[in-house]
Design a protein that fits this description.
By secondary structure, this protein is of the alpha/beta class. The chain has 17 helices and 29 strands.
Length: about 575
């Protein structure tokens, strides 16, 4: 699969030329001008409407269940009508807290078709965190699985707005175990709530505008309280179009054309992640692709699924790819169907694209960059360009504008004069029609992060002379461990409860399989007051398993800080990485 001799900039110019699928135009949103895609749907529900045309093509494959596009459309249309019957009006929030199940996919699309805002919840959250998210979003209907129901039940009396809980059974052949009824919140089995499905069901007549709210994805950033990033239909559709553009550039630059081939993807990114929902679910709904999901990710079972279902696309986060490549049975399976390995959202080992090429010679590796606040994709790199620039996350898509400014920059909008020089590192700002409108009910956090169409990413980056973006560091400190988000402030808050600890910092270090490992650096109030074993035993019952540090370091002197007394975690990471601690 030799790469095309055509330069990538020629391909990008051709795809965005007047009359072409990815032609761009200037739009005005609330007084701010953006470059946006000219073609494509005006809102997400148009994508659902168009998916009906795929008819009996398989859409979802999950643990023996197979759902066609026609079946899914009828179920989603029915769900939309049931939600309206239960008091959901346009703009109301519908919460989802379940693994990647077919019923969750129906819920997401049904809520959008009802004009509601879908607010997925992190399935790893504690009962207290789930209750916080439900109260914060003011959701009145929640669809969850039995595992989440058991976790949330102790919080029922603390839920201020919730009126209906719909429970997905762990066993598709039996009704869900609803347990004891509640005085205020009604509990119903999912199948009972949905009722009879009319194969000829149509979507309700709901008026949806491009700038209506569509989703709330929660991100904690560097604080312990999660923030709900509110994305509009425009934000989401633009992001899906950007992914299509980037993938077409990937294929054409490699001299191949997969337009007529159906995409079959192993979707392991949860729907509560913007990548799983938009780049995974919505993109496949739009393109007629098949989504293959698993209840629990296991690399061995995933390899068997890839071979059996002839999966064409794998990835999501680097951890998943690393675990697949490292599995002892990797070579026992026929993986020749795989033509794309795409990932992003976490630091990537420099040798990963070369390892993918060696293990899956027919597949193109792609790395991307984006945030919850950018509705996923901002930049992507793939194929030969990625092999030659393995530390880059690629070129920015045409509808996004970026600026690299000094970390001390504090003006409202970047200007050419305020930007860093080529290859000089600084904070990355992004502007585009994909930028969410702000954080739900958090005006101060919104004003700190968003400004006149721009978002401060908090990431430290540089751009070279041909426009390739390189992420140098993350000032937001979030750790991606085994595909999950670990927020250092949560772990640090628990560590500081130990009477012997004066200060601490939790950081992520690169790990060959897990993406990053969680590491705690601790300064004691007095030498000898506690051991590493004492600290680990104290912390273990206080945090989730995936948040537990794999290593603890007792530091004999104070943590490094800047003039604002912020801990310089970059210095700690560099010291530990070079064993110069």
């Amino acid at each position: 699969m030799a790469p095309s001799a055509r330069p990538l900039h020629e391909i990008r110019a051709e795809l965005t030329a007047p009359g072409q699928p990815y032609e761009t135009e200037v739009v005005d949103v609330d007084g701010v001008s953006f470059t946006s895609w000219k073609n494509g749907p005006s809102h997400l529900v148009e994508i659902l409407e168009q998916s009906w045309n795929y008819g009996n093509r398989e859409f979802i494959v999950h643990e023996g269940q197979r759902v066609t596009f026609a079946q899914h459309f009828a179920q989603a249309a029915t769900m939309a009508r049931r939600l309206i019957e239960h008091g959901i009006n346009p703009g109301d929030r519908v919460a989802l807290a379940a693994r990647n199940l077919p019923q969750g996919i129906v819920t997401l699309w049904g809520a959008l078709a009802a004009g509601a805002v879908i607010a997925p919840r992190n399935v790893w959250w504690t009962s207290e965190e789930l209750a916080y998210g439900l109260n914060d979003s003011e959701a009145t209907v929640l669809i969850l699985d039995e595992e989440r129901l058991a976790r949330l039940r102790k919080q029922f009396n603390n839920l201020e707005h919730l009126r209906h809980i719909v429970v997905i059974s762990d066993d598709p052949g039996h009704a869900a175990d609803l347990g004891k009824p509640h005085d205020v919140i009604s509990l119903k089995d999912y199948e009972e709530f949905l009722g009879p499905i009319n194969p000829e069901a149509t979507l309700p007549d709901v008026i949806i505008s491009p700038d209506d709210d569509a989703t709330i994805f929660y991100t904690a950033g560097t604080t312990s309280k999660p923030k709900g990033a509110v994305a509009t239909h425009r934000n989401s559709v633009v992001s899906v179009m950007s992914l299509g553009f980037a993938n077409e550039c990937r294929d054409l630059s490699a001299g191949i054309d997969y337009k007529a081939a159906r995409e079959i993807s192993l979707l392991n990114i949860p729907l509560f992640h913007v990548t799983g929902a938009l780049a995974g679910l919505v993109a496949h709904t739009a393109g007629g692709g098949t989504i293959v999901t698993m209840r629990h990710f296991d690399a061995g079972r995933a390899l068997a699924l890839i071979a059996r279902e002839r999966i064409t696309t794998i990835g999501g986060v680097p951890t998943i790819v690393l675990q697949l490549l490292a599995h002892p049975d990797f070579k026992k399976f026929d993986l020749s169907s795989v033509r794309s390995v795409s990932y992003g959202g976490a630091p990537v080992p420099e040798d990963l694209p070369a390892r993918i090429k060696g293990a899956l010679p027919r597949a193109l590796a792609s790395n991307g960059y984006g945030l919850t606040e950018t509705s996923a994709l901002v930049a992507q790199i793939s194929g030969q360009q990625y092999l030659e620039n393995p530390t880059s996350c690629g070129l920015v898509v045409p509808v996004c504008e970026i600026a690299i400014v000094p970390e001390s920059f504090d003006d409202a909008v970047p200007t050419p004069e305020s930007c860093c020089a080529t290859n000089e590192a600084g904070e990355l700002w992004v502007k585009g029609p994909n930028i969410v409108r702000g954080y739900w009910h958090k005006p101060q956090a919104t004003s700190q992060c968003f400004s006149r169409g721009w978002v401060r990413t908090g990431d430290i980056a540089r751009v070279n002379d041909v426009g390739l973006v390189f992420i140098v560091d993350r000032s937001k400190d979030m750790i991606i461990h085994r595909g999950g988000n670990v927020y250092p402030s949560v772990v640090e808050a628990e560590l500081t409860q130990h009477p012997a600890i004066a200060e601490c910092a939790v950081i992520g270090l690169p790990h060959e399989v897990d993406g990053e490992e969680v590491v705690a650096v601790i300064v004691l109030r007095q030498e000898g007051l506690a051991s590493v074993e004492d600290v680990a035993a104290f912390l273990k019952p206080r945090v989730a398993t995936f948040e537990m540090p794999s290593r603890f370091y007792l530091r004999p002197f104070a943590l490094p800080r800047n003039a604002q007394l912020k801990v310089l975690k970059r210095e700690l990471r560099e010291a530990l990485a070079h064993e110069n601690f």
